[in-house]
Amino acid sequence: MATRLHLTRLLSTPISTELIEEMKPTNDSEERARGRRAVTPCIGGQSRLEAFTLVEILVVTAIIAILAALIFPALSGARVSANTVQCANNMRQIGAALIAYCGEHEGDFPTTMHTEDDEKKAWIYTLGPYLQRVDQVRICPSDPEGPQRLKDKGTSYILNEYIAVPSMDRFGNVKESPSNLRALASPARTLTAFIVADGSSSDHTHSRNWKAWNRVYTDICPDRHRSGKASKARDQGVANYLYADGHVAQIEASEFKKLIDEGQNPALPPK
Fold first, then answer.
1. C-alpha dihedral, 95 to 98 to 100 to 101, nearest 10°
2. pLDDT tens track of the chain, all 271 residues?
3. Theoretical Cys-Cys bridge with 155: which of 122, 124, 214, 270, CB 3.0 to 4.6 Å?
4. Domain total for the chain?
5. Which of 210, 222, 200, 214 is nearest to 267 (CA)?
6. What is the distance between the alpha carbons of residues 136 and 156, in angstroms, rounded to a whole number?
7. Residue 200 contacts by C-beta under 8 Å, 6 or more apart in sequence?
8. CB neighbours of 189 closer than 8 A, spacing ≥ 6?
9. Is the dihedral of CA 94, 189, 203, 252 positive or negative?
10. Is the separation of the CB atoms in 238 and 84 below 8 Å?
11. What predicted TM-score, i.e. pTM, was given to this entire model?
12. What range defines the domain where residue 136 resides?
């Protein structure tokens, strides 16, 4: 009896106009017009939202592409900067080792593979006792041939010919002896080491022959630290340079090229 009275009261309760409107069936276009995603009924009385429209997918894709275009160059630039700093640290350690070696050898610089066939007598290994971790220091982090150089007992860094290799005439007589650290007119302006060029296995430059730019970038790598591929002229990017007083400077490849084009040889020790 109580149940029947409750049902009677429920049926006699007026239904509001708003509730009736909400209960009316609507189609997908009306749902979208209201700013809501259409709901599709599923088996079991549940419902699910429709898949994203093509326009929505394209918008999301475009946003992701824009973010990637902004983030990736920044990450690449950060990696280049970090490698440049690590390379400079390597060269500073080499510079300190060179000064220590010269201090114990009356100012003479170590010999190179130009006069020694034994790789164990190459200058980078001669400096071994003056370096804490020679295998780590001798490889530039940006050198694409670094792993192979490490395996071959080579180095990413190359000594200046002017300070390490005697100049000979065609009869084998010495025309110019290597510079002595104590005899340098200006150690702070005398280059002692460079970053070696790709494909080169030499441990010293041939800087007496730097008459043209192509002879420079086949000897050293003036654009070792850069973003992206090397330019055809190898004049986009920077490199680190070690000086006889132990300091390291970063020089733009374009600036180095300008000196060569003007007939100046930056490797020549100043008088």
1. 170
2. 444 444 445 445 555 555 445 555 555 555 444 544 545 555 555 555 567 788 778 888 888 878 766 666 655 567 888 999 999 999 999 999 999 999 999 999 998 876 555 566 689 989 999 998 889 999 999 999 999 999 988 999 999 999 988 877 777 777 777 789 999 999 999 999 999 999 998 999 999 999 999 999 999 999 999 988 999 999 999 999 999 999 999 999 999 999 999 999 999 999 8
3. 124
4. 1
5. 210
6. 11
7. 158, 218, 219
8. 243, 270
9. positive
10. yes
11. 0.71
12. 86-261
- Token pair 């009896």 is found at 1
Amino acid 6 reads: H
Asked, for residue 270, whether it belongs to a domain, the answer is: no
Q: Among all chains, which residue has been given the structure tokens 């114990």?
A: 104
Domain presence at residue 118? yes
For residue 78, CA distances in Å to 45, 52, 81, 130 come to 54, 37, 5, 31
Q: Is residue 241 included in any domain, yes or no?
A: yes
CA geometry: angle at 112 spanning 115 and 247, to 5°? 155
The answer to whether position 1 is within a domain reads no
